[in-house]
Amino acid sequence: MEKAMKKNLVQAYKQAPWRTQIQWIGIFLLVLVGIAVVAGVYLMISGRAAAAGRRIQSLEAEISSLEMEINDLKTQYAQVSSAKSLGERADALNMTLLDPLRAMYIEVPGYIPPSQPALAPPPAVEDISTPVLLPEFTASLWDWLRLQVFIEPNLSVESPESDGTGLISPAPAEVTP
Amino acid sequence: MRTTNWNRFFIICVLASVIAGAAGIQLIRIQNIEGAKQILADSEAYQGINRMIYPERGSIYDSDGRLLAGNEVVYEVGLDLQAIQQPETVAAVASSVLELDYARTLGYTQMTPGNGNPYFIVLDGFVSKDKIAQLESIKEDYANRSTKRGEVRPNLLGLVWTANNKRSYPEGTLASNMLGFYSFLDRTDGIGYFGVEEAYNELMAGEAKQIYSAIDPNLLTSLEEIPPGVTVQLTFNREIQAMTEKKLDEAIEWSGAENGTIIVYNPETGEIIAMATAPRLDPNEYWNYSDLFPNPKPYNSAISSTYEPGSVFKVLTMAAGLDSGVVTPNTTFNDTGSLYVGGATIYNWNMGGWGEVDMTRCMQHSLNVCLAWLGMELGPDRFYSYMKSFGFDRNTGIDLGGESHWPLKLPGDGLWYEVDLATNSFGQGISVTPIQMVTAIGAIANDGKMMAPHVVKAMVIDGKQYNIDPVVVGTPVSAETAHTLTTMLVNSLENEASNALVEGYSLAGKTGTGEIATPLGYTNSSTNTSFVGWGPADDPKFLVYVWLEKPEISIWGSEVAAPVFSNLVSDLVVLMNIPPDSVRLANKPGDNSIAGTE
Asked: HSE on the CB side for A33, CA within 13 Å?
């Protein structure tokens, strides 16, 4: 029975050799499509990485420009609110400094005088982590595959800190008294 | 037929594979030939650039967080000679907006780059935002201009500008003696001169760093951050500083003094509350420095000028006498009006004798003979040991650039004579800086503890604020001595009905009139007039030192410097929110009062 089936198959392929050709064409196309898919994925990833890189470059430039502008605005604000200009405005409004003997002092129970302003938090307060690029945005396709398949297969799902935007969300701030 | 198709297909596959393989081999070969290596090496130069990044210079704030020195945006405008298409248009626009010479600018725009000529020429390194807005407006106007057929649209290609930081001092001359200035015209090698800018130059400048910045976005691996320079917060409040400067300017004008200095100091912490000197430079125009301060005029006389202080120094001699137990407030001295010491005769300011006086009256009447006697009783070893404890043999170490001091003459150094002990006791023959006097006398106002004077209250490093704690630099006298002397000086001011008194406030203080040494000896026709005072006497919150140099209206400190002190303290107590003693002592210890007008 088995022998007869084998014989039939051989005969069928002899009668219709295109079957073999189709097999070869299929294999060839499969390899071609495989290569195309890998190339496409690679292109897509590297294209996205390049776009992200370009955006980083542009954001870097924007950060630098905004920092300069912030400083400039602070300086402009300080210029228009300088002691001299405020003094001139006070004089124009006929304001004078209080005569200490005309001052009336009222005791306010529980009043706490305002403390002097601080420019920044003290060193004991921990900083919230700043956003950083995930490895997915910097690794090559091969690195990424190696990481996912061989090195950290258990971490193939999105890392718990990630919010899906590509930025690590702030870790809980550790505040020391 | 089918066999033929198969053969054709097989041949096509083989051919395609051979071609692909050949292309692959060729690709590999091209990447490994000598020329390819060279091309790859050359291409690396275009993958990124090495840039020297100069961090933003740290800012300076007053104690209330108001900006005293910051950075503003200016633009560097230049010519990219390779990109210029219309030299005449570029030259016309650049010269009119930037106020440059047209012929010269046109010469630049027509220059051919290379062959010894530059590729880029800076026209102006410090162009304001307004002018850049004008340039942008013209550029936009050209871009939107409709042209007829054959007509060339004007353009400013090749005229480029980039933003930069420039040091800016929004308060102008305010506190410029303490701030110093930064030579911002030198964009790469600028440094801070004098004051805080000099003392903290390296910290505020930050660390310039050479960084590699990738142009190829695929090579961007990390964002290198250059931390800005350290920002500092100062101890003084700009309102008090402005008021002090105003009082000084008024005092100089009123008294006809050549110069003046006022320091307001917190004896508990060593913080400078205000420090006014004249003249004051606008650090935004620091190039006027040599005109305003011809050599050897010091930039900040409060820390750099030495002078013979006169009777204000008696505070320290009396402190030494009380602390060593040589005298008590009740010790009496028979003042005959003169004292012969080491071949010279010491006289009182009025050339007369005051008979039997106690130590409080010695201070009240500022008797030179009495203090010279006290100095002799102390002896040189003890007297100079105390003076060294008060810090007159060294700089105070205040955190301002440019401090100096005059060496203290000591027995055995060849320059010291016996009479020096007597004259030094009442503040002659010894040269001091105002900041040395403030630091030393601050110990009397602070239970005998001498604090390190300083103007920086806090520093912001990498976004964190580090406060600077007060530092005790010595305890030259005991707390008991300090309290006793303060009481003596409160009484002497009140008994004398001094011009320095401020109604409602108990103040301790002492006048000073220092004769000025000339090549022909001392002259009393022009003097250095001073006053030092502190209050409230039971819990000092401020110490004020006034020095007016060579006043014309009077030679006496009691008539020139004392009223300036009183005038200043009247406003100072308001700005520092210190109520009159009657209110303050009634409300102690809660001290929860708020000032308001009647």
From this structure: 6
